[in-house]
Amino acid sequence: MNERIQEKLSILADAAKYDASCSSSGGKRKNDNGGLGNAEGMGICHSYTEDGRCVSLLKILLTNHCIFDCAYCVSRKSNDVKRAAFTVQEVVDLTMNFYRRNYIEGLFLSSGIFSSADYTMERLVRIAKKLRLEEKFNGYIHLKTIPGASEELIQEAGLYADRLSVNIELPSDDSLQKLAPEKNYAEILTPMSQIQLKVAENREERELFRKVPQFAPAGQTTQLVVGATPESDHQIIKLADGLYKGYGLKRVYYSGYVPVSGDQRLPQVVQPPLMREHRLYQSDWLMRFYGFDADEILDPAHPHLDLEIDPKLAWALRHREIFPVDVNTADYELILRIPGIGMKSAKRIVAARRFAPLTLDHLHKFGVVLRRARYFITCRGMALEKREYDEQTVRRKILYGDGQTRSALVKRQLDLFAPEPTIITAPDLVSPQLDLFRQAS
Amino acid sequence: MQRHAPGLPAAVPITALRRPGELPPSFRSSGRFTYDGSFDGLLTVVLACWEQRLWPEAIQPEGAAQGGLFAETQHIETDEERARRVWDGLLRHMPGEARTSLYKTFLSERPDRELLIFRYVQLAIEAGGQDISENFGNDTVRLVADINKQLFREKHRMEAFVRFEKSHDGLFHATVEPDFDVLPLIAEHFTKRYADQRWLIFDRRRGYGLYYDLQRTDILSFDAASDAPRSGSAVSAAVLDEREPLFQTLWQTYFDHVNIPERRNLKLHRRHMPKRYWRFLTEKQPRERRFEPIQNKNNAA
Ligand code: SF4
């Protein structure tokens, strides 16, 4: 019995791990029934995998049996893999016992499509319901909605889950048609707008009647796979921007395409594009917290993110006319846009300058990276650079200093997001054993 | 995200730190103090400094104190009543949040924490009602803010890295060794979260723990090593709940399987989860064999 559950966990965690979403934030569920758990605070990463990703939730599939055949997915029907399925009780047990030991913030449950979409969705909902009503579980629950599941089931899912997600996976309808023939954009976007509507309705109702149960209080998210299909970074961040604005998504996750699918429809890449994924997350961050517009970050003339420098620096280099900016007088919004100044130092700058004019020494102590910022600021009217350099020169100076080798700062950053050499080196080693692919639904 | 309205009125600059050797007008001379090392004790010292109009050159816990060659050191007895007066009085000079940040500075256990706290209070008083907590140009203020950031991070790490083991009598217990004395700061989090199970979190380095008995959470001290609850690994299998080893193995199984070998990046791994925490993490304990990625059968095979 124990070995059986261990095997199931191996198979169904392995099949779920390519879903990048692991956040447990945004919950508002208080422990007010004397039960177990509390999801009202900020999310917690209880552990980190050896690739440095956050482990916050027990992220598993209910089953990896699937009637669909999406090329990018390890669980696709045509792939000859070990299959397994949990029972409802097994998932409940694992969640409760992991939570009690402070291993996790909660459950992230997804599934291959077994028998039919509704049949599968109904089981996901049953697990969430059992956790909430029978086990008095107040931890975090994230349910993936199964494509094609009925509106009623999604409605019910939202009553027990903190967050719902519908994965788009491929950044254009074209790619979707090629690689996931049973899916299409319309079918993915319909449940998304349904959820958006319910969340909004629910918020209004709860303002009037506090007793109305919450609907997916932590909203919805989605994931885009990057590097499996030909879309440009500009297309990808435009899509993300549209999802934030049009569908009120809480997060868009980007998942660098990990090679090793034996499927003929996909490119045989050797390393996942981790740097590109990282730059996309930085751009996403600029849109959500730094007040940048998607079209400011990239445009049809610059459709790809620069892998060597971060998107904020790239933007500043293209806009030399805006700089230099004086740190003692500029608005917070503009200070945030200076390369080398992050949110923490920007806040300190605008707070501290109310007391006394700031000097360079202050900036340094606030954590401003002067090596970068020096080309873009003045401090009490004084520039740090005597000459005005053009875009290319500044870029070179930041990357290489005055010499030929990359500056330590840049190297460190590149290092951190370059995958370490792995066992996969030659394409012929790629497919057979490591065909443990990507994620469900 | 919090945004500052552009163009906030600039406030009057605060008195710069005095030059070395120069005392603020309300002090007649300087002195050295020792106390029992408790927070109440420190507050009592602060009151004594004001009453005697002595600017503290050193405030140190007894035992840790290194007397200067010539300096005379005064020991101040802790007085809860007087400590409370100071604690309440602080609110006349600073907002509650700033006062809390001073308590957290104390929990950092830095050797200069006492003087830092005293200096901060003095700055606040001299500012005459103006809130100084965002005057980051001032070294004392910035240091207190930075220490608070560090404490917050350590508190957050404890909330993440505590690993409970269930014993046969239903108690969930964990051992930790945080960098700072953060147990008082995590009590509320664990009490809310684990309301329906008894638990104990033991700080092995500082020899005390938090214990929740389904009603309330108390601080328990363990004087001698002998009555300290045995630490995680030392609890013999006999007293563990019979399903405890199963769940530990399952958690290790899970941990190994969420890893994506193609993305392996130990630098990032260690940056998020520094090595010193590993000894208490179930998933980082040695196991007979690592759980390898599922060897999926493949048509080609
Ligand atoms: S992505 Fe979902 S629907 Fe497509 S094959 Fe995988 S499990 Fe099935």
TrEMBL record, chain A:
GO molecular function per UniProt: catalytic activity; iron-sulfur cluster binding; metal ion binding
Keyword S-adenosyl-L-methionine: yes
InterPro entries in alphabetical order: Aldolase_TIM (IPR013785), DNA_rSAM_put (IPR023874), Endo/Exo/Phosphatase_dom_1 (IPR051675), rSAM (IPR007197), rSAM_sf (IPR058240), RuvA_2-like (IPR010994)
Keywords: Iron, Iron-sulfur, Metal-binding, S-adenosyl-L-methionine
Keyword Metal-binding on entry: yes
Matching Pfam families: HHH_3, Radical_SAM
Alphabetized CDD domains for the sequence: Radical_SAM
Domain of life (superkingdom): Bacteria
Cofactor: [4Fe-4S] cluster
UniProt-listed SUPFAM superfamilies: Radical SAM enzymes, RuvA domain 2-like
PANTHER family, per database record: ENDONUCLEASE/EXONUCLEASE/PHOSPHATASE FAMILY DOMAIN-CONTAINING PROTEIN 1 (PTHR21180), TYPE II SECRETION SYSTEM PROTEIN K (PTHR21180:SF9)
Protein name: DNA modification/repair radical SAM protein
Organism: Hymenobacter busanensis
Organism ancestry: Bacteria, Pseudomonadati, Bacteroidota, Cytophagia, Cytophagales
UniProtKB/TrEMBL annotation, chain B:
Protein's UniProt name: DNA metabolism protein
Domain of life: Bacteria
NCBIfam families: SAM_7_link_chp (TIGR03915)
